[in-house]
Amino acid sequence: MPATTPPNADVVEHDPLAEGTSTHEVVKSHARIPWRFLGNRALFYLFTLWAALTINFFIPRMMKGDAVSQYLARNQNISAEAADALRALLGLDTDKSMWQQYLDYWKLLLQGDLGIAFTHGMRPVTEVIAGALPWTVGLVGIATVIAFSIGTSLGAVIGWKRGSKLDFLIPLTTFFNTIPYFWLGLLAIAIFAVNLKWFPIGKAFGPGISPGWNWEFIGQVIHHGTLPALTIVIASLGGWMLGMRNMMLTVLDEDYITVAQAKGLPNRRVLWRYAARNAVLPQIQSFALSLGFIVGGTVVMEMVFSYPGVGKMLLDATNAKDYALMQGVFLVITISVLLANILADVAYAFLDPRTRQTES
Q1: Would residue 301 count as lying in a domain?
Q2: How many whole angstroms from its chain centre is CA 198?
């Protein structure tokens, strides 16, 4: 039976979400700035950044061989003097101690100098990464956001209507999630690119097209990026959908959902304002990690579709032992993951103030 408000102008109706959830605390503490919470998180992320960059310095130097040795193995006609000049250019002939190299590494890093990319015509690493980064972020980023939005929304609806015909979507999408991505990509190319000829086989744009802000180039980028983007969405949709559906089943048993329904609120409002809002909280952290690793790209996808992204560039740099480029890509990935986690912490604290109250 719907609850009625007493005929008293001074009585304020309480939102059902305030019963047993964090919304009541939001009203009480919205004016408080959680300085201790923000300070603790800042110190944590600064330490994490230092540790990641330190590991980034030592790992390439623990690997056997170097970029010049790899180059000489492929080009036997290089003279000894030219090889020594290459080592000097790349800083591989130094007799400095590891500690001094570490200090020089931080000095150059703070100046924005990431070194020279040996495998890209001695171009600066920052320039090489800047050229590949938009391709990866544009393709993988859009595909990840689409997969998260569709999967989370459908998962919420399926969890709300448990036992309905929509449940068949869970095993269907989970099946695609279990298929190795390289096989899914090759299958998509064989069907939609080779047989049906709806999409091109690979690359970011067609031959003879000059990059620029014109409709011809933009259309080519969209046409070439549609098939790899669809494969990413299909491959990751099941995970988002299953996770949200399971959290919805847990949330629907909470008392505040029963109270909201007992007050006669519309099902749509109970679903999105109360149930889905709380069920999506665990998804936020996973989504933040996915956003962070967007910069790293999907290496397999970029290899299958010959896409000029950061992931393929990192793989090529690793095979060629291009330490400067490897370090630069790892640096960008590390910073992007940390920034994504910071945004996730802020969003999580906003949606569920109990997280910041326990640390403050």
Answers
A1: yes
A2: 28
CATH number (domain holding residue 43): 1.10.3720.10
Task: Specify burial of residue 24 (Cβ count, 10 A radius: 0-12, 13-18, 19+).
Answer: middle
Q: Is there a contact between 224 and 309 (Cβ–Cβ < 8 Å)?
A: no
Contact status, residue 122 vs residue 208, Cβ threshold 8 Å: no
Residue that wins the pLDDT comparison between 266 and 60? 266
Would you say residue 255 lies in a domain?
yes
In a domain, 12, yes or no: no
Domain span holding position 277: 35-66+115-359
Domain assignment present for residue 99? The answer is no
Q: Which tens digit of pLDDT belongs to each residue from 88-123?
A: 666 665 667 778 878 888 888 888 888 888 778 778
Q: What percent of the chain is helix, strand and coil (3-state, nearest 5)?
A: 70, 0, 25
pLDDT tens figures, 179-238: 888 888 899 999 999 999 899 887 888 887 778 788 888 888 899 999 999 999 998 898
Provide the number of structural domains found in the chain.
1
